């Protein structure tokens, strides 16, 4: 079993040449059967397995991952966490998640570099100010922190912004101080290690190729490493959800799109918090190494490729330069893409499916990283008890049939607008 991380273990190992560290998790062979199988070893799948073991005592659990841990969106996102949502279905869920982030490192005994450096949504017009005030009030009604800054306050935080831009002058912002960033791949590794320590089998390089059913519902998964039996199967496959659900004959209200992320060369500290741009869709923060980490909208075509196209690169960079003109002199070091499971109202699904024993955690769109702990918490609750967790009750699959959409962005059934 992996060592517990502590100052004492660190000191002991430093005195004996660091020869005593154990592998961070095991590499188990799949067993013939499990009480539950989670498909997808991203943040959500691993968190689900951890909370199944920790909160519900279910330890005979496998996470099956087609690649390696962290190869999906959990290791590709721009690392932003926040709970500054507007609608009742969303605020309690994302606030639950933020609270879990606040205690996560102690809980899983892993340094995930949780940094509550603040998230500032800039507004550039009077109507956007109204929308931010409304959002801030909705947050307060749910006991969530948020404050409105005027242009002078923003100038103190971010003196290098283009405040007097003729088209999009900066008028202020909505700041959530408890929001921030978390090192994304450490989240995958930390949850994998914590689940493994509780007896969960984390099985890498094991692609699910079929979902077997009998008269009682699901009975197991076909994989590239053979058949594995279980009466409970949870799908947490993010951008591949539609493809995996189709193996059980389900057609979901989800489209797959590419979203790109970018990292610049390293700079001295210059952007102290996460900043989003009101006049477009652009978000930026500075990593602890100094690189600026930024992104914008999805590439507007359906794809399963983990790379994007140049027009989107151009658009994202233009928005960045409109906000921070100094960006025009920076070099982009790296960029990549991830596959987003865009739901039709921009909000997620954590629910049972019409097939007995098959459960769904999907539709995370742009916002699934910040949701990781709460998603795992609530999906584990659903798998273990067959009932929705209080804060995830609104995330029903049938809302797309009944019309009870959680249209956070007011974009309607248009995934390319969320
Ligand atoms: C560029 C980019 C930036 C983003 N920025 C943010 C952000 O700043 N804040 C935020 O909150 N969210 C952000 N997101 C969204 C967030 O990353 C995702 O919503 C979230 O990570 C999805 O959950 P996951 O971690 O479980 O997904 P993943 O890590 O993608 O996990 C799903 C796993 O399922 C596996 N899988 C798929 N098919 C199969 C199969 N057949 N068999 C076995 N395994 C399978 C995949 O290999 C993958 O590892 C961003 C996403 C991208 C791409």
What does this structure look like?
The protein contains ten helices and 19 strands. The chain has an eight-stranded mixed β-sheet with strand order 5-6-4-14-15-16-13-17. A six-stranded mixed β-sheet has the order 8-2-1-12-19-18. It has a three-stranded antiparallel β-sheet with strand order 9-10-11, with no helix packed on it. It is α/β, with parallel strands linked by helices and 418 residues long. Strand 1, helix 2 and strand 2 form a beta-alpha-beta unit. Helix 2 crosses helix 9 and helix 3 packs across helix 9. 28% of the residues lie in helices and 25% in strands. It is globular. Bound molecules: flavin-adenine dinucleotide (FAD). The site of flavin-adenine dinucleotide has 40 residues, from helix 2, strand 13 and strand 17. Flavin-adenine dinucleotide binds next to helix 2, strand 13 and strand 17.
Number of helices: 10
Please list the strands of the largest sheet in the order they lie side by side: 5-6-4-14-15-16-13-17
Structural class: alpha/beta
Query: Which percent band covers the strand fraction?
Result: 15-25%
H-E order: HEHEEHEHEHEEHEEEEEHEEEEHEEEHH
Record field, number of beta strands: 19
What sort of overall outline do the alpha carbons produce when their principal axes are compared?
globular
Provide the helix percentage: 25-40%
How would a crystallographer describe the biggest sheet? 8 strands, mixed
Spans of at least 5 consecutive residues whose pLDDT stays below 50 are none
The radius of gyration over CA amounts to 21 Å
Distance between the termini: 43 Å
């Amino acid at each position: 079993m992996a060592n517990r991380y502590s100052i004492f273990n660190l000191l002991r190992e430093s005195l004996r040449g660091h020869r005593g560290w154990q592998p961070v998790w095991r590499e188990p062979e799949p067993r013939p059967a499990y009480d539950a199988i989670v498909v997808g070893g991203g943040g959500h799948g691993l968190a689900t397995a951890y909370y199944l073991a920790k909160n519900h005592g279910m330890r005979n659990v496998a996470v099956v991952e087609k690649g390696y841990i962290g190869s999906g969106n959990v290791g590709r996102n721009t690392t932003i966490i926040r709970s500054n949502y507007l609608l009742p279905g969303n605020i309690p869920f994302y606030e639950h998640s933020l609270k879990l982030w606040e205690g996560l490192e102690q809980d899983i005994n892993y340094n995930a570099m949780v940094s509550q450096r603040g998230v500032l949504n800039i507004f550039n017009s009077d109507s956007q100010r109204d929308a931010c005030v409304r959002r801030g009030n909705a947050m307060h009604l749910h006991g969530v922190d948020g404050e409105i800054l005027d242009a002078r306050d923003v100038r103190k935080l971010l003196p290098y912004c283009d405040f007097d831009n003729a088209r999009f002058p900066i008028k202020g912002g909505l700041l959530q101080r408890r929001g921030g960033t978390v090192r994304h791949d450490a989240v995958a590794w930390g949850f994998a290690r914590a689940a493994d320590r509780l007896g969960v089998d984390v099985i890498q390089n094991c692609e699910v190729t079929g979902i077997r059913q009998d008269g009682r519902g699901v009975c197991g998964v076909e994989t590239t490493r053979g058949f594995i039996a279980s009466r409970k199967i949870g799908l947490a496959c993010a951008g591949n959800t539609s493809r995996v659900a189709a193996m059980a004959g389900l057609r979901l209200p989800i489209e797959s799109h590419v979203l790109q992320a970018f990292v610049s060369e390293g700079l001295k500290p210059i952007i102290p918090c996460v900043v989003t741009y009101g006049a477009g869709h652009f978000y930026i923060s500075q990593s602890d190494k100094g690189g600026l980490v930024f992104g914008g909208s999805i590439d507007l075509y359906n794809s399963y490729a983990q790379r994007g196209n140049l027009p989107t690169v151009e658009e994202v960079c233009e928005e960045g330069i409109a906000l921070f003109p100094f960006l025009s002199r920076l070099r982009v070091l790296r960029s990549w893409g991830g596959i987003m499971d865009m739901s039709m109202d921009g909000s997620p699904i954590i629910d049972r499916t019409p097939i007995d024993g098959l459960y769904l955690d999907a539709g995370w769109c742009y916002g699934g990283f910040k949701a990781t702990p709460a998603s795992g918490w609530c999906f584990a609750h659903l798998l273990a008890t067959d009932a929705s967790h209080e804060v995830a009750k609104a995330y029903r699959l049938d809302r797309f049939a009944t019309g009870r959409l959680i249209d956070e962005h007011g974009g309607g059934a248009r995934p390319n607008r969320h």
